[in-house]
Write a structure and sequence with these properties.
- The chain contains eleven helices and ten strands.
- With 305 residues, the protein is α/β, with parallel strands linked by helices.
- The chain has a single domain, classed as Rossmann fold.
- The strands form three sheets. The chain has a six-stranded mixed β-sheet with strand order 2-7-1-8-9-10, with helices on one face.
- A hairpin with a 5-residue loop joins strand 9 and strand 10.
- Helix 1 runs antiparallel to helix 3 and helix 2 packs across helix 3.
Length: 305
Amino acid sequence: MIIKRSKFENIKKKYLKFIQSQETTNEQFKDKLKQLNNFYIPICDMIFKKKFGNKKTKLIGLSGGQGSGKSTISQILKILLKEKFNLETVIISIDDFYKTLEERKKMSKNCSKLFLTRGVPGTHDTKMLLNCLSKLKKRPFNKILTPKFDKSTDDRCKKKKWLKVLKKPDVIIFEGWCVGAKAQKKNSLIKAVNELERLEDKNLEWRKKVNYELKNDYKKIFELIDILIFLKVPSFRYVYKWRLLQEKKLQKISKGKKIMDRKKIKKFIMFYERTTINMLETLDNVAKVLIDIDTKHRLKSIKFN
């Protein structure tokens, strides 16, 4: 779709303003306009074509390892969809649907102590998530509240801080590290992928439960996705590096609340390792949009399947 010069200038202005708000002294965005033209606008064009002539709300999955840029990209797409196509867009993060701390404490006693740590499939309230997505797509639409999770307190926010959706969205961007993840074959669970599994999941209870959740409740949710966008990181080791950057940003906005140090982050991402590696191996041909991210944290290439 050809954009009028005046409209493009307005899109560019809002895009650059948002990018600037996300930059830090240590991390500056490169090739900003090139990324706008080569990545973000083509993705929005694809979403519009999927939406055009159809009043149904479209669910866009945005998936990628921790620190891959999902939150930033979600906001960019929301800005462009509004400015270019006048589409109302709501961003839903799977992270906001973690079970409460109390619920995970119970799960850690009844199944595996590893479920106390949020992150893996099984630690989300899938019933609430499915219900929320269904209500957002329902016609006629009624205003709803969607939950918010505070990572600094490791618990769900009180309802007064939840997101209010007052207008029926044209597009839902559903972002999360494990969005679109597939279950593994049972024999793939036997060999531990890291020290956490080897020492703290010797009986495989945690791995089996995570895999069961992916095969059942999470599959039902992911099947609702109309377009899956996958941000493919170079390898899992970059998840640790970029997760550190995330923690620094969180520290700036959390006003002195408790933040994880390097040692804790290193252990924390072990919970994500198995599923992330499996996604890197299996989602290339599943995702409608595949974006390769280079070792310098930049968008490298894009492929539309």
